[in-house]
Design a protein that fits this description.
The structure holds two protein chains of two kinds.
Chain A lengths: L1 E2 L16 E8 L2 E9 L6 H5 L7 H5 L7 H16 L5 H32 L4 H7 L1 H22 L8 E2 L2 E2 L5 H26 L11 E6 L10 E4 L4 E2 L4 H4 E4 L8 E4 L4 E2 L2 H8 L5 H9 L12 H21 L16 E9 L2 E9 L5 E7 L1 H19 L5 H13 L15 E4 L1
Helix pairs in contact in A: 3-4, 4-5, 4-6, 4-11, 5-6, 6-7, 7-11, 10-11, 12-13
Chain B lengths: L17 E6 L9 H12 L4 E6 L3 H8 L4 E8 L9 E6 L20 H10 L6 E8 L11 H18 L1
Parallel strand pairs in B: 1-2, 1-3, 3-5
Antiparallel strand pairs in B: 4-5
Helix pairs in contact in B: 1-4, 2-3
Classes of the chains: A alpha+beta, B alpha/beta.
């Protein structure tokens, strides 16, 4: 039967998987505690990867996130190829970097235009922004579409790409296909530069992070699809030593694990990438950054929107460079025979460093898996930020303080499946 | 989440007269009812109708339905007093009549169908008419396959949507 019903609760649409809450304890005018509580149920990916073949892993891990599936594929294929002692050819590596550029463009455009910019311009959401600034929002949608075009051409589809695999690709695109893609990307570069100029004009609260910053690094390049690990304080280590430095631990108030770097809190993401690798940006991205007022480092989380815009410029210029130098890999993918070993991989998801580790049996079965996503690494730093923001703004009423806290959290583009205005702020005064 | 909104069937040289968009994740049980419906329609191949699946992300929906006279969206919903398999029909339009239910705002990570409708309206990228079929879900846990109650409603859902398409 078909009914016209008023029982629909759209806020309970099936994909809304969890929610977060912030609880703040204030005693005698001092913030004693601030907790970002993530209720999202544990997803047990590491557990159900056990027993699967090493060649199946990337199709499973891509399902962890619909916004950054390439990141979850990339760290996985790197770790498995590390375990099996296989290095892919330069043309395959370049094609992987191109695919990853698509994800950065698409994810950053979504975050800047649909989620983050309304905070700076005093709009409750992108719809209200679009009513007053239609051309701006259309520009954001064009950018996102340009990123999706890369994902579709190289990865087979925009979400959970199916053309990439351990060892490379099932099919490499032709030069003609990539030439058509380049035609779409050239106007997108203008949109990206305009975006950088636009967000650079926003007002940014003063805030300087003191945490160490951690990101993948590659000699002479802005790391995206792999690399070593480096910190702003000068730490440097290969992915194989990630577990010696980064330790995850449970906290009672969150289903996401917190992490420490050599016992201290730290941050991953655009600020970390930019601060560690800004010198390796392409000339056009460096110019855009300078014009936007960024120096060699950026430690103000509210300016992360500017860094994301610069990274879109970089990703498009890098995609055009890769297409211009493209050699169609032949074969498109390598065989990756299994062996009993453990492998490690890191790559730069749009919102930060993503580490994978797999222990393989001789026949390729996964015996153990570990995935350390950026949001859990950043959770402690987000909480520290929130404590500072609440402490500095206790005179605001609950509604205004909640809005400021949400804005603070959105600086980090956290990957938690939370409902709209997801903060249930509770300030407990004693 | 599922595949992007790329048309699966050839709509004809003049563009489609209608598009059916199945929304949801087939690996979350009943959330896959949208893609199951699209799969059922692919066997029928109604003429002039584009069939597509999407995850509900607004820019994909705008691309899928912009300039199309009729858009039919199928998704799963959870209701407070559940009646799994029950089908709800909501029509919006033409030209801005009616309003989407639910609040806007979206998560930190994405936006939902009501946001997509409001955004389309603000950008003048609505379809001529938009009809949303929401199917009450019993189970949105992990794994493929619909619950018996939702699987049982598929023939009726297919029938009413074919009637909608005319």
């Amino acid at each position: 039967m078909t009914h016209r019903s008023r029982q629909l609760r759209v806020s309970a649409l099936a994909r809304v998987e969890g929610e977060g809450a912030l609880s703040v304890l204030v005693e005698d005018g001092q913030v004693r505690d601030a907790q970002l509580r993530i209720y999202e149920p544990p997803r047990f990916f590491e557990a159900f990867l056990r027993g699967r073949q090493h060649t199946e892993v990337t199709d499973i891990t891509s399902r962890i996130c619909g916004i950054c599936p390439v990141a979850y594929q990339a760290s996985a294929w790197l770790a498995i190829e590390d375990a099996c002692g296989v290095s892919v050819s330069e043309p395959i590596a370049a094609l992987r970097r191109l695919l990853y550029c698509g994800e950065w463009i698409s994810s950053h455009a979504l975050h800047i235009y649909l989620l983050h910019a309304p905070d700076f311009l005093g709009y409750p959401d992108v719809v209200a922004l679009a009513r007053d600034h239609r051309a701006l929002v259309e520009r954001g949608l064009r950018l996102k579409k340009a990123g999706n075009a890369i994902l579709e051409t190289v990865g087979g589809r925009a979400i959970h790409p199916v053309n990439s695999r351990v060892g490379g690709f099932y099919r490499a695109p032709s030069r003609a296909e990539l030439a058509a893609l380049a035609e779409q990307l050239r106007p997108a570069l203008d949109d990206a530069l305009a975006t950088t100029g636009w967000v650079a004009g926003f007002d940014f609260p003063d805030l300087e992070l003191e945490h160490d910053l951690l990101a993948a690094s590659q000699p002479g390049r802005y790391a995206i699809e792999g690399g070593q690990v480096a910190s702003a304080a000068g730490l440097a280590f290969p992915p194989q030593e990630f577990g010696d430095h980064v330790v995850e631990h449970q906290v009672p108030h969150s289903t996401a694990l917190h992490a420490t770097l050599d016992g201290r809190g730290y941050l991953t993401g655009p600020l970390a990438r930019y601060t560690i690798s800004s010198a390796a940006l392409s000339p056009i991205a460096r110019q855009a950054a300078a014009a936007a007022g960024l120096g060699a480092a950026c430690r103000n989380p509210f300016r992360s929107i500017v860094v994301r815009a610069v990274e879109i410029v970089y990703a498009i210029s890098e995609a055009l460079r890769i297409i211009g130098e493209y050699e169609r890999p032949d074969p498109a993918g390598l065989d990756v025979p299994p062996r009993a070993a453990t492998g490690h991989g890191v790559s730069e998801a749009p919102r930060g460093l993503l580490y994978h580790r797999y222990q393989l049996a001789a026949d390729g079965r996964i015996e153990a898996a570990a995935i350390v996503p950026p949001t859990s690494q950043n959770q402690a730093a987000i909480e520290a930020d929130l404590r500072g923001v609440v402490a500095a703004n206790l005179d605001l009423d609950d509604a205004a303080l909640t809005a400021l806290c949400e804005r603070t959290i959105r600086n980090y583009d956290p990957c938690i499946s939370c409902a709209a205005h997801f903060l249930d702020l509770r300030v407990e005064h004693r | 989440m599922s595949q992007p909104a790329a048309p699966r069937s050839a709509p004809g040289p003049a563009g489609p007269r209608a598009v059916v968009i199945g929304i949801g994740n087939p690996y979350r049980r009943d959330d896959g009812v949208g893609s199951a419906l699209v799969a059922a329609l692919e066997r029928v191949r109604p003429p002039g109708v584009a069939l597509t699946v999407a995850d509900g992300e607004p820019s994909q929906l705008l691309d899928a339905w912009s300039g199309v006279p009729l858009a039919v969206v199928v998704d799963a919903v959870l209701c407070e007093v559940p009646a799994p398999g029950r089908i709800h029909r909501s029509a919006l339009g033409p030209a801005g009549a009616g309003s989407p239910a639910g609040r806007g705002g979206g998560s930190t990570h994405g936006l939902g169908i009501p946001d997509a409708i409001r955004l389309a309206r603000a950008l003048d990228r609505e379809p001529g008419q938009l009809v949303v079929f929401a199917v009450e879900a019993a189970d949105i846990g992990f794994g493929p396959g619909l619950s018996p109650a939702v699987a049982a409603c598929l023939p009726e859902l297919t029938r009413v949507i074919l009637a909608e398409l005319g």
